[in-house]
Amino acid sequence: MADAATRMGLATRTPMGLRLTETGESFVGRHREEYVHQMHVHGSVTGRVRRFLEGNVRDWRGHWRRHGFDDETLTGFYRNMQNLPGRVEETLPLGDLHAGEKCTIVLPLGGHGMVRRLAEMGLTPGTEVRVVRSAPMRGPIEVSLRGVSLALGRGIASRVLVKRSNNGQPTSNS
Amino acid sequence: MEPKRRLTVCLAGNANVGKSVIFNQLTGLNQAVGNWPGKTVERAEGSLHFEGYTIRIIDLPGIYSLSAYSMEEMVSRDFIALESPDVVVNIVDASALERNLYFTTQLLELGAPLVVALNQIDFAARKGIKVDAEKLSQMLGVPVVPTVATAGIGLQELLSKVVEVAEKRPTPMEIRYGREMERSIKKLEASVKTGLPRLTSRYPARWIATKLLERDEDICKKVDGENGGRVLSEAAKIAEQIEDLHGEPTSVIIASERYSLVCQTAKQATTVVSPPVIGIGQRLDSLTAHKILGYPILAGVLASVFTIVFVAGDATIGILERLFDAVLVPAAEAFLSKGVPPAAVQVISGGVMWGVGAAVTIVLPYIVPFYILLGILEDSGYLPRAAFLMDNMMHKIGLHGKAFIPLLLGYGCSVPACVGCRIMETDRERFLAGFVVTLIPCAARSVVILGLVGRYVGIPAALALYLFDLCLVMLVGRLAFKALPGAPMGLIMEMPPYRAPSLKAILNKTWARTKDFVYIAFPFIIGGSVFLQLLSAVGAMPMIADLMAPLTTSWLGLPQIAGIPLIFGVLRKELTLVLLGELAGTFNFSGILTSIQMVVFAIVTMIYVPCVATIAALAREFGAKRAVAVAVLDSVLAVLVGGLAYHLLSLAL
Question: Most-buried pick from B154, B167, B544, B599 (CB within 10 A)?
Fold first, then answer.
């Protein structure tokens, strides 16, 4: 049973099974962000984060068990974290791209609600995106996809993992 | 004679597709704007006659999906599913077909009798895109009518298709997913059909099954309410299987599948005929959202908006006040001559009529011009650019860029600003924005700041007060953001292309918003004014001033009479100044107050309890409890800051 997670306030029981609470989301999110940070700062992912992103299940499960999680909970929490399409080294946060660059969405990270919202606005894995401009001082970035322009806050943009397109040259139109 | 035939039609579509323009074209002034019952979501309704039908048109909010993400989406899907309108007109932007058709697929899934209005074909043509309406209609299985709403093109055709669909009900395309998803949905659909007879009588079974797989919270709750535990656990099991296989949440997988379907449809119906014309809109876009130039342009736009509002306001307010005096004084005399007791006359003329006067003299001169200018900024597409540039700043107070819009409104009037907080996505952010808005000096408070501090102490001091207020907003906003539970939301906002705004739509919107303002504000301004006149008629005012004396004189350092204007200021902030003059018997304020007292008086007026109309708006948007909390908090803050300012300034000067 998933009593450990519910007791820790990381998840609640709903009619649909376990759902992450806000604390749970940020708990999980911290490790996702660690990945983004490592990619961003060190240019590659090492250690635990890399192992779990590459689907080395035994390893990260062991890690989480030490936090009091049982198998059922872990399966639920990490289902969507496996099978990252593409090689990890090729991805970078959308927020790191410059105006005019093009990329393909690999994986939006974040809570269920956010990831779903992004998908509904058209940011589904595999979608081609062009960066139109970014606001100064780490403000939002504007991207163009599926014929529309969207402004994304910097926090969100840094959680959307993308793969730079080969012809990432600035272009005059979309 | 045939009986009169009635149709209920709703307009649905993404934001910025010209939905409200179509609504205005169809219904003209024959419309009413209100709220959805129990929800703070705007509901616009109108009616028209066409080919013997009386058609009632409901304008649903502009949304991107039919999930349970926001109140707007909930309202829309419940309206379509539960009130089963005869026809749903889906307005689609031809220049951004893919994203718009995503929403169409959801309407189809919900089993809505659909007519698609392929709008803005002129704009698409300028982007070099030609959409084949015939082909699209064949693929979707529903009528598709090309329209140019701003010019009224295609609307007659649209209406006749609406009547046709209402009479014939064609079978629309069934949205089919990938093989494996399709099998899961079918399997679950069967269980839904047998297990949930009540829910399936309201929503299509296939739709329920899809929503269950998407883990839609609202539907899960509804299923659970019908003892659907078995169906729920089956849904959870299937969803988990799919997620295990794909490594992504089902909602994302389903969204991806819808998008790939839509992408094919859009590709087949669209031909790129020419390279896009770089029009004036795009040049404006790169200028106004420019990372450096954008900011001075924003400042310039805001400065001109407020200059226009204040100049227009000053001009009309003088005329109106003279007009009211011309009516009020003779009316009061007429009452007196008929033997009505003077106290009653005071309550009637000073309370009711004067209250009406006060309300009218703020609506006409300030609110209407402000709404018109706002409408232009909104419909042209400038506001999203402003929000884009300001996102960073707004994050400092825990809000994202969209909050800039209600904050901006707040400099005009707090009432529409509170209503404007609806553009924020979550309840937490709406309330946070609403709270911050009450601290922004509205036009009435600006009258006090400029008329007292600006005139007698100097314009730099007045500007310093505005700057001080901005700092205070930042500080208090930040504290409130830390104190309120929940995580801040990031910005996801569409940046619509620039378009020439339609005058008719702006005037209609201004009219509807002004009406809304009148409904919220007038009863409270007039009622409050009568109440306060009653208090002063029974001679309670000096007593209250005495009671307040420790606060006004020792802590704030103001003369004792200043207590009374501050009470009346609850009706309308600039009254503090008018009443202070009347009570002191002179409008040369330099004779009554020292410079420091003026600054303190202005600070208190600027921050303390929002006016009654604002409290009413807060109560309507956030509930009475939270409205009172904001009022109390603001008052405490005002007294605190005002007192500190008095003591510090006295020390310094």
Answer: B599
Of the candidates B243, B278, B400, which has its C-beta nearest A80's C-beta? Answer: B243
Within 8 A by CB and 6+ apart from A87, the residues are none
The percent of residues in chain A predicted with pLDDT above 70, rounded, is 42
pLDDT of residue A19: 61
What is the distance between the alpha carbons of residues B177 and B185, in angstroms, rounded to a whole number? Answer: 9
Cβ separation B490–A155 shorter than 8 A: yes
Lowest mean pLDDT among A31-45, B163-177, B251-265, B403-417: A31-45
Sequential DSSP letters for B469-487: HHHHHHHHHHHHHHHS-SP
Q: Does one domain contain both B12 and B59?
A: yes
Q: Do A150 and B220 touch (CB under 8 A)?
A: no
- A151·B391 Cβ contact <8 A: yes
Q: Between residues B585 and B580, which one has the greater pLDDT?
A: B580
pTM: 0.81
> How much is the average pLDDT of B189-196?
91
- At B293, the pLDDT band (50, 70, 90 cuts) reads very high
How confident is residue B435, by pLDDT bands cut at 50, 70 and 90? very high
Taking the Cβ of residue A155 and every Cβ of chain B, the question of whether any pair is shorter than 8 Å is answered with yes
Is B195 found in the same domain as B157? no
- DSSP structure string for B35-90: E-TTS--EEEEEEEEETTEEEEEEEPPP-S--SSSSHHHHHHHHHHHHS--SEEEE
Q: What average pLDDT does this structure show over A30-48?
A: 46
Q: Do residues B395 and B482 share a domain?
A: yes
Buried b vs exposed e over B463-486: b needs ≥16 C-beta within 10 Å?
eebbeebeebbeebbeebbeeeee
Chain B residues closer than 8 Å to A29 by CB: none
B56's tokens:
């009632």
Burial of B620 (0-12, 13-18, 19+ CB in 10 A): middle
Contacts of residue B487 in chain A, CB cutoff 8 Å? 22, 26
* Nearest partner of A158 among A173, A172, A138, A144, judged by Cα: A138
3-state helix, strand, coil in chain A (%, to 5): 40, 25, 35
Secondary structure class of B341 (helix, strand, coil): coil
- Number of structural domains found in chain B: 3
CATH of domain A88-164: 2.30.30.90
**One domain, residues B390 and B513:** yes
